[in-house]
Design a protein that fits this description.
The protein is of the alpha+beta class. It is built from seven helices and 29 strands. The protein has two domains: about 100 residues, Wheat Germ Agglutinin (Isolectin 2), domain 1, CATH 3.30.60; about 240 residues, Thrombin, subunit H. The protein is globular and about 55 Å long. It starts with 7 loop residues before the first helix and ends with a helix.
């Protein structure tokens, strides 16, 4: 088919050029320093800013003093006090925030909102008393990013992905292919796949695990009192797809500090915990939807960007947001993660029949899961992640569906 109009390459170049012009124009009006004193204002864009100075740096006019009253923005409150969390996880005195910090992710479409305190532990999974009944994902979703220093950035998903989308093609926004480790040979397909319902049928991932299980890893949240765990999957060498409630404390209404990731972690025969690709710390976390504002399972997805890439020997999983009639028919999917009812560092896997809820925010499933497996990927026979496990209930569990907005945020972050 021949399409009329501006060639794709020119359209992409025009978008990137426009973003660059907007960034330079905004930075020209950004103060060198803004006070860390909490004096919140509501911008005309409906977002809260730490102060009028911070809003000015974002190029936004102040609508009124105080937090915004609408429910459309992120559900955060600035609270830095005299001390702000330091980049190393400790605390350091910070009287002002500099322009470099406020404009750090502007080219990716993110506006700086302010700085908050970070929570010491993850939140609980979403409320399991009611099933999701909403259908299609709405178009107002946003990306919310935070750093180890507690700096918070915000962007509509479409804006956050504009530069990434301009540099790719249409199919890239629906699929990210998996990357197997060098020299990997896929096993022969097996017959007799079965649906697991009832008793616990989880099995070990292997000692050591093989791809794609090497791309599944354990997320650790180390605090002074207790260690917490979640699960996640490498979808880029430095990006981990997981559940938003693993990095956002619903109780404290704050982001979580002290995140670390170990791909392919397992227990050796003598019980030793093995992290074959080391442990990577986090650079920043992006919530790809509006979980802080709603707390709903369909919004429960996040991307942890690591401070350094994991070895290519781990491989990465693909991500597939395409969904059609064939996807809605029952098909075998696999999941793996680190359950808290097992020994620390022990990876377990499971498979079950799943019918994707195309156009919905979440899909029910009957794979056996337990606390700690939040953030575990659900992938198909092509090693493409289709969802992220977010909650368990007595008769059915649920994972958040991957959609094109998720992929845009992965590409943009």
């Amino acid at each position: 088919m021949v399409r009329r109009g501006v060639p794709r390459g020119l359209r992409a170049g025009a978008v990137v050029a426009l973003l660059s012009v907007l960034v330079l124009a905004a930075e020209a009006g950004c103060p060198q320093l803004c006070s860390m004193k909490v004096a919140p204002v509501c911008g005309e864009d409906g977002l809260p800013y730490l102060s009028a100075c911070v809003a000015k740096c974002a190029g936004v006019r102040v609508k009124h003093n105080g937090y915004c009253s609408s429910n459309g923005g992120p559900g955060i409150r600035f609270d830095v006090g005299d001390l702000a969390p330091g980049r190393g996880g400790g605390k350091e005195r910070a009287a002002a925030i500099d322009r470099e910090t406020m404009t750090a992710y502007r080219e990716a479409g993110f506006a700086y909102l302010g700085r908050i305190r970070l929570a010491d532990e993850p939140g609980a999974p979403p409320n399991a008393t009611a099933r999701l009944e909403r259908g299609a994902v709405d178009g107002g979703r946003h990306a919310l990013r935070y750093t180890p220093a507690g700096d918070v950035y915000y962007a509509p998903l479409a804006k956050a992905a504009a530069a990434a989308a301009a540099g790719g093609n249409g199919t890239e926004l629906l699929r990210i292919p998996p990357v197997a480790p060098p020299g990997f040979s896929p096993p022969e397909p097996r017959r007799g796949l079965r649906m697991i319902i009832g008793s616990d049928e989880r099995g070990p991932c292997g000692q050591p695990p093989t791809y794609p299980l090497t791309a599944v890893g354990q997320l650790d949240f180390v605090t002074q009192n207790q260690d917490f765990i979640c699960s996640g999957a490498l979808v880029r060498p430095n990006k981990v797809l997981t559940a938003a409630h693993c990095v956002w404390s619903v109780n404290d209404r704050a982001f979580v500090r002290g995140v670390a990731f170990a791909a392919g972690r397992h227990r050796a025969g003598d019980g030793t915990i093995v992290s074959p690709f080391g442990v990577q710390r986090w650079k920043h976390v992006t919530l790809v939807s509006d979980f802080p504002a709603t707390g709903e399972p369909g919004s429960d997805m996040a991307i942890v960007t690591l401070d350094e890439p994991v070895s290519a020997e781990a491989g990465t999983m693909g991500v597939d947001a395409a969904c059609g009639p064939d996807d809605m028919r029952p098909k075998v999917m696999q999941t793996a993660g680190y359950a808290s009812d097992k020994y620390n560092g022990e990876c377990v896997k499971e498979q079950c029949l799943v019918s994707l809820g195309c156009g919905a925010e979440a899909t029910p499933h009957t794979c056996d899961t337990y606390m700690g497996q939040s953030g575990s990927p659900f992938w198909d026979g092509r090693n493409m992640v289709r969802g992220v496990h977010v909650r368990g209930m007595p008769t059915v569990n649920e994972f958040s569906n991957v959609n094109s907005k998720t992929l845009r945020s992965i590409l943009a972050s």
